[in-house]
C-alpha cells in the first residue's frame, strides 16, 4: 500500500473475511504520507504482519519486497485499494489442490471494476472462458486482443516455490509490470481461469490515469514486441498486426471513458456508460 488511507480498511477487511482462513496477511506500507500505516496497525489479528519501508520504493520495489518473505504455499498480491470477494482464496486454492490440475502455475479469476466509492462500474470483465490454458495460447490471444486478458495482480494466485525461478516483478515496461510477471509464471505451467468474478479492481483519478491513453498504447506495444521476440511464444506477424489495431482501439476507449469518469464521477450518465 501507498497512501491508501481512504481504502485500506475495506481492503484489509475483505481479506480477513475470506471463507478460507488458513493464510498470512503481510502488509507492506511503502512509506505512506497519509494515515495508511496507522489504520493498518490498528488491527488485532494474529494473521497480520505489518512492515513499513523507511523510504519509498515504488511498486516494483515494494512488490518484490512483499513476495520475498512469504512462508505459505501460495501467494496473492493485493494492492491497497482492491478487494477480495469472500470465496476468492477458497476457490483459487481448490484449483491448485485438485490433482487433475497438476502442472498449473497460475490461477486467475474474472474481476469486477469499481469506482472510488465502491460502486460497480463493470460487473464482470471476461476475456477468457473457464478452464486450463497453455502458455502459447494465452500469450497469442493477449497480443491479438491488445489488452490484459489475465487480470491485475489481485486476480492471480501462484505457488510460492516458483518465485525463486523468476526475476520478480519488473517495471522495465511500467504499464505491464503484472503481465511480465504472469508470463514468467506461465513458463513453468499452465493458466487456469475461473469464470467468476472473485475480486474487485478499483479505478480512480489517482490510480487509473497512469494506465490509459497514449502511455498505455506505447507501453503495451513494447510489451507485445518483447513477448513476440521469444520464439517459445510462437507469435505470428498476423497476431501482431491484429494486436496493434486492437491495442489502439482499447487505449482510445479507455481514454474516452476515463475523461468522462474523471469529470463526472457522480453523474448518472457516467455510471450508465460503465454499467454492465
Fold and architecture overview:
Helices cover 40% and strands 18% of the residues. It has 276 residues and is α+β, with helices and mostly antiparallel strands. It has a domain at 82-274: Spore Coat Polysaccharide Biosynthesis Protein SpsA, Chain A, CATH 3.90.550. The strands form 2 sheets. Strands 3, 4, 5, 6, 7, 8 and 9 form a 7-stranded mixed sheet that branches. A two-stranded parallel ribbon has the order 1-2. Strand 1, helix 2 (36-41) and strand 2 (48-52) form a beta-alpha-beta unit. The longest helix is centred in the C-terminal third of the chain and has 27 residues, at 237-263.
In short:
The chain is α+β, with helices and mostly antiparallel strands and 276 residues long.
Q: Name the structural class.
A: alpha+beta
Number of helices: 10
Tell me what the CATH architecture of one domain is: Alpha-Beta Complex
What is the end-to-end distance? 29 Å
Low-confidence stretches: 208-213, 261-276
* Strand fraction: 15-25%
How many strands in all? 9
Order of helices and strands: HEHEHEEHEEEHEHEHHHH
Q: What's the level 1 CATH class of one domain?
A: Alpha Beta
Largest pleated sheet? 7 strands, mixed
Mean pLDDT: 89
Shape: globular
- CATH superfamily (homologous) name of one domain: Spore Coat Polysaccharide Biosynthesis Protein SpsA, Chain A
Amino acid at each position: 500500500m501507498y497512501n491508501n488511507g481512504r481504502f485500506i480498511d475495506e481492503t484489509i477487511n475483505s481479506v480477513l473475511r475470506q471463507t478460507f482462513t488458513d493464510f498470512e496477511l503481510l502488509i507492506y506500507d511503502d512509506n505512506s504520507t497519509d494515515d495508511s500505516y496507522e489504520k493498518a496497525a490498528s488491527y488485532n489479528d494474529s494473521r497480520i504482519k505489518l512492515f513499513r519501508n523507511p523510504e519509498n520504493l515504488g511498486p516494483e520495489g515494494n512488490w518484490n519486497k512483499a513476495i520475498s518473505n512469504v512462508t505459505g504455499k501460495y501467494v496473492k498480491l493485493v494492492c491497497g485499494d482492491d478487494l477480495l470477494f469472500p470465496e476468492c482464496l477458497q476457490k483459487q486454492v481448490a484449483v491448485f489442490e485438485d490433482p487433475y490440475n497438476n502442472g498449473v502455475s497460475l490461477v486467475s479469476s474474472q474481476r469486477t471494476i469499481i469506482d472510488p466509492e465502491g460502486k460497480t462500474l463493470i460487473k464482470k470483465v471476461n476475456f477468457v472462458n473457464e478452464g486450463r490454458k497453455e502458455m502459447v495460447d494465452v500469450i497469442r490471444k493477449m497480443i491479438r486482443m491488445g489488452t490484459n486478458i489475465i487480470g491485475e495482480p489481485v486476480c492471480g494466485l501462484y505457488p510460492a516455490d516458483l518465485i525463486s525461478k523468476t526475476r520478480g516483478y519488473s517495471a522495465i515496461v511500467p504499464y505491464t509490470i503484472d503481465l511480465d510477471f504472469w508470463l514468467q509464471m506461465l513458463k513453468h505451467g499452465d493458466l487456469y481461469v475461473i469464470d467468476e468474478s472473485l475480486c474487485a479492481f478499483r479505478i480512480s483519478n489517482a490510480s487509473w490515469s497512469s494506465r490509459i491513453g497514449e502511455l498505455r498504447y506505447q507501453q503495451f506495444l513494447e510489451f507485445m514486441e518483447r513477448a513476440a521476440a521469444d520464439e517459445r511464444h510462437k507469435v505470428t506477424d498476423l497476431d501482431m498486426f491484429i494486436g496493434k489495431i486492437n491495442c489502439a482501439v482499447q487505449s482510445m476507449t479507455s481514454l474516452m471513458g476515463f475523461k468522462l469518469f474523471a469529470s463526472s464521477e457522480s453523474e448518472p450518465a457516467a455510471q450508465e456508460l460503465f454499467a454492465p
